[in-house]
Design a protein that fits this description.
The complex is a heterodimer. By secondary structure, chain A is of the alpha+beta class. Chain A folds into two domains: 59 residues, no CATH class; 111 residues, Beta-grasp domain (Ubiquitin-like (UB roll), Roll). Chain A contains seven helices and five strands. In chain A, strands 2-1-5-3-4 form a five-stranded mixed β-sheet. In chain A, a hairpin with a 5-residue loop joins strand 1 and strand 2. In chain A, helix 2 packs antiparallel against helix 3. Chain A is globular and about 30 Å long. Chain B is an alpha/beta fold. Chain B has 16 helices and 18 strands. In chain B, helix 1 packs across helix 13 and helix 15 packs across helix 16. Chain B is globular. The relative contact order of chain B is 0.17. Classes of the chains: A alpha+beta, B alpha/beta. At the A-B interface, helix 3 and helix 7 of A face helix 1, helix 2, helix 4, helix 9 and helix 11 of B. Chain B: It catalyses: 2 reduced [adrenodoxin] + NADP(+) + H(+) = 2 oxidized [adrenodoxin] + NADPH. Chain B: Keywords: FAD, Flavoprotein, Mitochondrion, NADP, Oxidoreductase. Chain B: Its EC number is 1.18.1.6. Chain B: Pfam families: Pyr_redox_2. Chain B: It is found in: Mitochondrion.
Chain lengths: 197, 488
């Protein structure tokens, strides 16, 4: 368990993770090392939930995301800074995105809760993100009709919405901030909003 | 309003998990609703949950396997995520287990702390018109199950070598799927996972025309742009729509202005209707404002025509834009009618059911004691997710947020009662009970064996997979004993 905690901890250090997060991660790992694993698990779970991190690789297998490439592969690649904001709880995570990778990949590489049901094949809208800044939005190459057709079905569609799997990290996007929309009750494919009953 | 709720739910989970034993949950149904429910439970409870997912089929994934069209392979990528969930040590799959026949819901509820019903919609809305029971009239669901190798429709009585014209009633994505599978050059289907018996029929098919009958107009169509574009831009299909049927009202224009999706649908149809397709060998006719009124059969009770009533649109304050009959009729000669007017859920004995809406009455996923019951009049420990909860609408991803809501309700309830789960026996108890009844359970390893068998056969035959489409074939390939094979 310690083996998986440490690299994650190191990565967070390198990314300049807030001190609070590091303290949390350190405490979890030291409790684990002390052998009281179930107490550590529960405490760690509480901390994680407070930070609204969906899962930490340290404690149990990720269920929703495929882990992307390890950080070793990206060493040497030029990166930009991208911030993912969770609309659910307002938490923000800033990560390094290798130029050329799309946001869904970047999110999964960093354990960020962004669904990608069709695995970047433009057959769903679960990786929908909202670009916070209009200026940044316009720096992203325009979406194709195919992307727009899928976006039409996304929950919480906005003027600056994009599919994460179609946004490629480029130099011009350094400092990009995207919001991951929270659940809404719009279950209808044709945009109809059901009347409450 | 999930945002503040989720924060309070997280704190409830925090306080209860400090003295909790494991939560044992049983999910009935292994489609997207079931798997996304498991997904949310695993995220929320970590090591403190054990999940058993049941399905009456030996194969998991619900409509992702039996509903998504064979030529939409990418849409099925979500099964990779579902596979990771099923392979998680906290999750067990119990295939070939029929709740109601092999085990009752009451027995399940005694074994688990919570049960989530996610078994979808396996029946259909009816047209309720004369002649509906003629031979050659089928629900689109049955036809889709047939070409997707669902064992319950292996013997669908359809003979495409005797069919030249088909009427499809409805214009949602399922209707488009049916039209496309019937009209697509069959050579393009050979490498897909289409059931071999369907492929064989399509290779001998005489089908040349499909009439897509929609009660209302193009702006009210329920299909989506990607699917429509795919269908109307196929070079081998000539698309027809009468200009009179493409006229739009002011209300329609306003809707198109407001919603890109509606604009796209309208443009795709109207452009396709005037585009030349020199290589086309088959025809697709859009028939808007045409409500099926009667199915006309020959002396052998075989369908030979469909009679439709022309409609016009009226704004209804409650129901929105509705079609009303004009008293004018048309007839199209057809030898096959597919009804694609909506799926419908089936009731499970012992569970309250709203027959009009076709759903289990619920409040945020908590099953209620009856139709119209108050939101706090709940059946404890019983939940619902997916089409059974909200009706047969939406796409695969819609179940993500649906599951989030149901699981949030579960988390609240569990924390509120503060009952350390009475050592719920869960999977061990279920296994014991099923074993004592000689039920041939298909666990995940058995499914993976069946899966490998299908993929290998596919490799040999030049396709993605060759499905086992019969009950005994499925169970044999899964390597389970066949003491009692239940013919459906």
């Amino acid at each position: 368990m310690l083996r998986t905690v440490l690299p994650s901890l190191l990565r967070r250090c390198l990314l300049g993770a807030p001190l609070q997060e590091l303290v949390t991660a350190c405490s979890c790992s030291s409790l684990q090392a002390a052998g009281s694993s179930s107490a550590a698990q529960r405490w760690g779970q509480q901390q994680r939930q407070q930070q609204q991190r969906s899962h930490a690789a340290a404690f149990h297998t990720s269920t929703s995301t495929a882990h992307g490439h390890s950080s070793d592969e990206d060493e040497g690649a030029e990166t930009i800074s991208v911030t993912f904001v969770s609309e659910k709880d307002g938490s923000e995570t800033t990560v390094k995105a290798p130029i050329g990778k799309h946001l869904l990949e970047v999110a999964h590489d960093n354990d960020i809760e962004l669904e990608g049901a069709c695995e970047a094949s433009l057959a769903c809208s679960t990786c929908h993100v909202i670009v916070e800044d209009e200026e940044f939005f316009h720096r992203i190459p325009e979406p194709t009709e195919d992307e727009l057709d899928m976006l039409d079905l996304a929950f919480g569609l906005s003027e600056t919405s994009r599919l994460g799997c179609q946004v490629i990290a480029t130099k011009e996007l350094d400092g990009l901030r995207v919001k991951i929309p929270s659940a809404t009750r719009n279950f209808y494919v044709d945009g109809h909003v059901p009347k409450p009953h | 309003m999930l945002s503040p709720l989720r924060a309070s739910v997280a704190s409830l989970v925090r306080s209860s998990s400090s003295c909790a034993k494991q939560l044992a949950v049983c999910i009935v149904g292994s489609g997207p609703a079931g798997f996304y429910t498991a997904h949310q439970l695993l995220k929320l409870y970590g090591e403190d949950v054990k999940i058993d997912i049941l399905d009456r089929l030996p194969t998991p994934f619900g409509l992702v396997r039996t509903g998504v069209a064979p030529d939409h392979e990418d849409t099925k990528n979500v099964t990779n995520q579902f596979t990771r969930i099923a392979q998680d040590p906290r999750v067990n799959f119990f295939g070939n287990v029929n709740v109601g026949r092999d085990i009752t819901l009451d027995e399940i509820r005694k074994l688990y702390n919570a049960v989530v019903l996610a078994y979808g919609a396996e029946s259909d809305r009816k047209l309720n018109i004369p002649g509906e029971n003629s031979h050659g009239v089928h629900a689109a669901r049955e036809f889709v199950w047939w070409y997707n190798g669902h064992p319950d429709q292996r013997d669908l009585p359809v003979d495409l070598s005797r069919v030249e014209s088909v009427a499809v009633c409805g214009i949602g994505n399922v209707a488009l799927d049916c039209a496309r599978i019937l009209l697509r050059p069959v050579s393009e289907l050979a490498s897909t996972d289409i059931a071999r018996h369907a492929l064989k029929q399509l290779q001998h098919s005489k089908v040349r025309q499909v009439q897509l009958c929609a009660r209302r107009g193009p702006v009210q169509a329920a299909c989506t742009a990607k699917e429509l574009k795919e269908l109307v831009s196929m070079p081998s299909i000539a698309v027809h729509a009468q200009p009179s049927q493409l006229a739009v009202s002011e209300a329609d224009q306003a809707q198109m202005k407001a919603t890109r999706l509606k604009r796209r649908i309208y443009e795709l149809i109207s452009n396709a209707a005037v585009s030349e397709k020199p290589g086309a060998s088959r025809d697709l006719f859009f028939q808007f404002y045409r409500n099926p009124a009667e199915i006309i059969a020959d002396a052998d009770n075989q369908v030979q025509a469909i009679r439709v009533e022309k409609t016009q649109l009226v704004a209804d304050p409650v129901r929105g834009t509705v079609a009303v009959g004009t008293g004018e009729y048309e007839e199209y000669p057809v030898q096959l009618v597919l009804k694609s007017i909506g799926y419908k859920s089936l009731p499970l004995p012992g569970v309250p059911f709203d027959d009009r809406q076709g759903v289990v009455p619920n409040a945020a996923g908590r099953v209620l004691t009856g139709v119209g019951a108050a939101a706090d009049s709940i059946v404890p420990g019983l939940y619902v997710c997916g089409w059974l909860k909200r009706g047969p609408t939406g796409i695969i991803g819609t179940n993500l947020t649906d599951a989030e809501e149901t699981v949030a309700s579960m988390a609240q309830d569990y924390a509120m009662t503060r009952q350390a789960p009475t050592a719920a026996v869960g999977g061990a108890g279920l296994q014991q009970l099923l074993q004592s009844r000689s039920v041939a359970v298909v666990d995940y390893a058995a499914w993976e064996q069946l899966n490998a068998h299908e993929v290998n056969r596919g490799q040999q035959q030049g396709s993605v997979r060759v499905k086992c489409a019969a009950w005994d074939e499925l169970l044999r390939a899964a390597g389970v004993a066949l003491p009692h094979v239940h013919a459906m």
